[in-house]
């Protein structure tokens, strides 16, 4: 589970199938799903993504997916997904995608999901570049890319690419949307990212009491014994 205190990214279970179907609108179907979800297809999707988490994350076609939940209510507010291997992307680049259901739009959930996915990639994978590919007419997601500190990266796309490409270097400071929303598990103070070029993931999270932490799948792991 990944959280910034406002949203949580957690692996979906069969109990989320109905909310997954209900949350889709025409925009999600057109841009991401390829066709309307049904209870059967939603359950299959959740089951397949759970198998991906248990398998080889770097196998072609593997999708590491979460449900985006509103912390205050526990409601499923969208989905998020990373792919560590895609034929269109260079080695070391991970593709990020997300959806936010209509009732939850306009609250910054997309930017928060992108920031949490970047933190996950930096701490738990060998990815060095996070990539967003966005339809040119998707103004909301274009704003998410900008707010999240992604740079235009059309040079990564093929000459016939119709989508706009953006990239964020995971070896540098994490996406800015994540900063100032992490709290020290020991003392509860705000944490900030400390850049360290000689560190395996480029740095660590630290509070003013000098507690140092690394992102882990279940939350944080102490950097110091």
Which helices and strands, and how do they pair?
Blueprint: E1 2-3, E2 7-10, H1 17-23, H2 26-33, H3 39-54, E3 64-70, E4 76-83, E5 93-100, H4 109-124, E6 129-134, H5 139-147, E7 151-152, E8 164-169, E9 191-195, E10 203-207, E11 212-216, E12 219-222
Parallel strand pairs: 5-6
Antiparallel strand pairs: 1-2, 2-3, 3-4, 4-5, 6-8, 7-8, 9-10, 10-11, 11-12
Helix pairs in contact: 1-3
Your description of this structure?
With 225 residues, this protein is α+β, with helices and mostly antiparallel strands. It has two domains: 2-176, Aminopeptidase (3-Layer(aba) Sandwich); 182-225, no CATH class. 25% of the residues lie in helices and 28% in strands. The strands form two sheets. Strands 1-2-3-4-5-6-8-7 form an eight-stranded mixed sheet, sandwiched between helices. The chain has a four-stranded antiparallel sheet with strand order 9-10-11-12. Strand 11 and strand 12 (219-222) form a beta hairpin. Helix 1 (17-23) crosses helix 3 (39-54). The chain is globular, with a radius of gyration of 17 Å.
């Amino acid at each position: 589970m990944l959280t910034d205190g406002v949203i949580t990214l957690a692996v979906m279970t069969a109990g989320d199938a109905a909310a997954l179907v209900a949350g889709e609108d025409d925009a999600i179907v057109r841009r991401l799903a390829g066709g309307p979800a049904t209870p059967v297809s939603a359950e299959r999707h959740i089951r397949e993504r759970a198998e991906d988490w248990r398998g080889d994350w770097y196998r072609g076609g593997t999708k590491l997916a979460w449900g985006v939940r509103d912390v205050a209510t526990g409601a499923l507010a969208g989905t998020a997904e990373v792919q560590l291997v895609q034929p269109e992307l260079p080695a070391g680049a991970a593709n990020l995608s997300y959806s936010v259901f209509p009732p939850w739009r306009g609250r910054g959930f997309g930017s928060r999901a992108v920031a949490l996915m970047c933190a996950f990639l930096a701490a738990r994978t060998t990815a060095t570049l996070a990539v967003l590919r966005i339809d040119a007419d998707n103004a909301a997601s274009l704003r998410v890319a900008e707010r999240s500190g992604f740079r235009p990266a059309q040079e990564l796309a093929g000459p016939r690419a119709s989508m706009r490409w953006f990239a964020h270097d995971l070896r540098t400071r994490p996406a800015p949307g994540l900063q100032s929303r992490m709290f020290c598990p020991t003392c509860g103070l705000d944490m900030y990212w400390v850049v360290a070029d000689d560190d395996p993931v480029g740095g660590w999270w630290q509070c003013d009491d000098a507690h140092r932490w690394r992102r882990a799948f279940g939350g944080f792991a102490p950097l110091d014994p």
